[in-house]
Amino acid sequence: xxxxxxxxxxxxxxxxxxxxxxxxxxxxxxxxxxxxxxxxxxxxxxxxxxxxxxxxxxxxxxxxxxxxxxxxxxxxxxxxxxxxxxxxxxxxxxxxxxxxxxxxxxxxxxxxxxxxxxxxxxxxxxxxxxxxxxxxxxxxxxxxxxxxxxxxxxxxxxxxxxxxxxxxxxxxxxxxxxxxx
Length: 181
Fold this sequence. Notes:
Layout: E1 3-4, E2 10-13, E3 25-28, E4 34-43, E5 48-52, E6 74-81, E7 85-103, E8 111-119, E9 131-133, E10 139-146, E11 154-158, H1 159-172
Antiparallel strand pairs: 1-2, 2-5, 3-4, 4-5, 6-7, 6-9, 7-8, 8-11, 9-10, 10-11
């Protein structure tokens, strides 16, 4: 999964979704139209990647403020569950903030992710890279991992961390540390 963050064709997903540097990537729109995507940058610290497709006037999801998220607030996860069910939506609450987890499933091995948002909104394999939304329809997180030994324990990278990496990628064509901005 992934989502547009600007009308000019920039979108984000997880790095582990597009980690093969030798692959050609395309996105499939809701109308089944297939667009060639260029990887602008991969952020190994936040398991996120910035992609670009040609064109303009794409419908995008506005980025919210993950620092204002509170435990108990409604959270909505969107993605392509199991890689089969397009635009799956699940609703839950934010269950925890500023968690540190070790995420597995990447070809490059386990990675530690810090400051993540915990939610009980169902995130399934195939939902990685989709948005975690607040009730205003703003992305407050990038869905990234689940606890396999539990039910409905999922994690999203806070969108404020993503914003800094996205700005760096858009201005420099790569993600640099510390982030631009």
